[in-house]
Design brief:
Elements (H helix, E strand, L loop, with lengths): L3 E2 L2 H7 L8 E5 L2 E7 L5 E7 L7 H13 L8 E7 L2 E7 L6 H6 L2
Organism: Gossypium schwendimanii (Cotton)
GO molecular function: ATP binding; protein serine/threonine kinase activity
Enzyme class: transferase
Length: 106
Amino acid sequence: MEMQIFDFATIANATNNFSSNNKLGQGGFGTVYKGMLKEGKEIAVKRLSRDSGQGFDEFKNEVTLIVKLQHRNLVKLFGCCIKGDERMLIYEYLPNKSLDNFIFGS
């Protein structure tokens, strides 16, 4: 499975510098932003919290596992972005609500 490594400037540009207008949600592991790449592809960017305590090795293992778990019923991981202690996961954007809404209802 292929996975792209995105540079920070590309992701910052795609999310309008992580604008609050592009914020889709927030959880214990970070904030998710909607973005648009230059070629028109919509993405969801999970910007991991610096307070998560996750080191580089743990992040690398998580990305490797997610790539191996690609399935037609799972959101596709396009790649990741690492800059210093910044770690981000770049997913395909799915416009129809969040998974918890489908599981638990509104």
